[in-house]
C-alpha cells in the first residue's frame, strides 16, 4: 500500500481539520454505542465503563468531535456524549469504535432527560455544551436547552467544584447565558479560542470560525454550598430564554444540516 493511501485510511478530516486518533484495524475496534438506556435510571457508571474514573459529559454532542479528542488525549477520564439526533450519534459511535476507545459511550437522549433521570447527582467532573440550538421559530422557542432549570440540573450532576463549559455563536443566546449562568456557577468568559483546539473544538465551532462569526465561550465551576432546593428557588426567579435569536444566522443552521458528511 502506498504511503499516500495509508495516510488516507488512518486520518479523518472535517473541513480540513483532523479528528483526533486513528482508525485502527477492525480487530481493535470497540463498541461505544449505549443503545438501551435503563427504563428508570440512574445509569450504573461503574458497570458501563468497567471502572471508576472522572466523567466528562457532552450535552448535544453532535458528531462527537470534542469528546473523541478528549477521550483520545485523556485515557484516564471516561466520556459520555448524548444528542437527540440519531444520525449524529451514529457518526460519533462509528468514529469512537474505529479508534478502539474504551473510555467513551454515546447515546441518543434528550439532555434534560439525561440530567434528570440518568446521571446520578454529583457524578460528572465536567459537563460541556457547545452551540446549543438557538431555535429561530417562535413555535420552537420552548425547545431552547439552556434554562434556569437546566442549569440547576447541570449543577446537581457535577461533583463539588466540577466544571461547566458552554459556548455559542449566537449573541442573543450568549447574553442570556452570561446573565443567568453566574447564579449557579463561578463563571468566566474565555477570551480567545480554546488552546487545545485553535481551529475549533466542535464541528459547529469550526463552521462558525470559517464564516468569520464571533464565538462566545465561557466556563465555570459549580458554586459550592448552593443546595438543590436553594438553586431551585433561584431558578424560579430567573427569566426563561426569550432572547432574539437573530434570524440572519438561521441560514447557517440550514447550511450545516445540508453538509454531506458529518
Ligand atoms: C448546533 S448543533 C451543535 C452540535 C455540537 N455540539 C457542535 O458544536 O458541533 C446542536 C445539537 O444539539 C442537539 N440538540 C438539540 N436539542 C437537544 C436536546 N434537548 N438534547 C440533546 N441534544 C439536543 C441537536 O440535535 C444538535 O446536534
What is shown here, in short?
This protein has 262 residues and is α/β, with parallel strands linked by helices. The protein has helices at residues 3-10, 45-49, 65-73, 86-98, 111-118, 148-157, 171-180, 203-210, 228-237, 250-258; strands spanning 13-14, 17-18, 55-59, 78-83, 104-108, 124-130, 158-168, 185-190, 216-222. It has one domain (51-258): 3-Layer(aba) Sandwich (Rossmann fold).
Describe how the helices and strands are arranged.
Elements (H helix, E strand, L loop, with lengths): L2 H8 L2 E2 L2 E2 L26 H5 L5 E5 L5 H9 L4 E6 L2 H13 L5 E5 L2 H8 L5 E7 L17 H10 E11 L2 H10 L4 E6 L12 H8 L5 E7 L5 H10 L12 H9 L4
This protein binds S-adenosylmethionine (SAM).
Structure in words:
This protein has one domain (51-258): 3-Layer(aba) Sandwich (Rossmann fold), CATH 3.40.50.150. It is 34% helix and 19% strand. It is built from ten helices and nine strands. The chain has helices spanning 3-10, 45-49, 65-73, 86-98, 111-118, 148-157, 171-180, 203-210, 228-237, 250-258, and strands at residues 13-14, 17-18, 55-59, 78-83, 104-108, 124-130, 158-168, 185-190, 216-222. It has a seven-stranded mixed β-sheet with strand order 5-4-3-6-7-9-8. A two-stranded antiparallel sheet has the order 1-2. The longest helix has 13 residues, at 86-98. The mean pLDDT is 93. The structure holds S-adenosylmethionine (SAM). S-adenosylmethionine binds at residues 59-62, 82-85, 88, 110-111, 130-131, 133, 145, 202-205.
